[in-house]
Amino acid sequence: MEYRLAKPEDAKEVYAIVQDTIKRIYPKYYLPEIVDMFCEFHDKENIGEDIENGNVYVLLEHSRIIGTGTIKENHITRVYVSPDFQGKGFGTFIMNQLEAEIGKQYDKAEIDASLPACKLYYNRGYKTIDHGIWECADGVIQVYEIMEKQLKKISDRCNNLRLRPYKTCDAKTIVTWIHDEISFRKWSSDRYESFPITEEDINKKYMECNGDCSKVDDFYPMTAFDESGVVGHLIMRFVDEEKQVLRFGFVIVDDAKRGKGYGKQMLLLALKYAFDILKAAKVTLGVFENNEAAYYCYKAAGFNEAALEKEEYYSILGQKWKCIEMEIDAAFL
Description:
Layout (H helix, E strand, L loop, with lengths): L1 E4 L5 H15 L6 H10 L2 H9 L3 E6 L2 E9 L2 E7 L8 H13 L5 E6 L4 H6 L3 E9 L5 E10 H9 L2 E4 L5 H4 L6 H8 L10 H10 L10 E8 L2 E10 L6 E9 L8 H16 L4 E7 L3 H10 L2 E2 L6 E5 L2 E11 L4
Parallel strand pairs: 4-5, 11-12
Antiparallel strand pairs: 1-2, 2-3, 3-4, 5-7, 6-7, 8-9, 9-10, 10-11, 12-15, 13-15, 14-15
Helix pairs in contact: 1-3, 10-11
């Protein structure tokens, strides 16, 4: 996957994605006159001009553009993901990057919300501050929401995050974040026999089985918390005799707080602990290819894909899931 500023030669492909998304998705929500208005507004000329001004970003998979987003000062616009790639976390990733870019200069991000995206923005912390009106053909009126998000307030909440050793009482909260078996296996792979798990299952693995590690000082389960309580969890374990390589696992964040920077901040705190306290030289982790949201969270925290001689697959729920190996070394901090 690649995320970068759009180039002039990308204009045709960006235009095609925007138009295809509007024509396939918007008729479910809008009258034909309003759909036509969106198509006319996001024409080749406007897209080309925004690219020339350095305002447009694109997300690529296998050299193919699958999503895009545009920034004008602190205003986000034209966030589209190809319908063939929706529901896989790509829209969330693009929004994370756009907000991070805006946050370098502004306290707030603003966005004009179409009906298909309102819920996504609301779940990200945006609030409606006003309404705009567009006059379309044949007297049809389009009313849209103008939404705003306080970027620094979200950042401040994440900066209040703390990391401490895991307590047995944490398990009661952690199990409430896992709602289905697919999510469960993305989180735990084959480390637990059956779904669902209980707090007793977690505590048995950690307290009685030492996280399946042979030495007590090889295993470090950790919990992230803020003023609201427990919000995240992960484990660390040394995988070599020299205690140079530390592996992260069971990384999870309260599902009500995902997409707000908590996962990245927890990982950064864990990396600091790994390098400064445990004196590891490298941290590794594995993420399934179908867990795009986690993959991009790890990328945002500084992890990169590791070069492997052979691709690794797991048999999960009757399917073969590819595992991507990622790593980061002490030079990061």
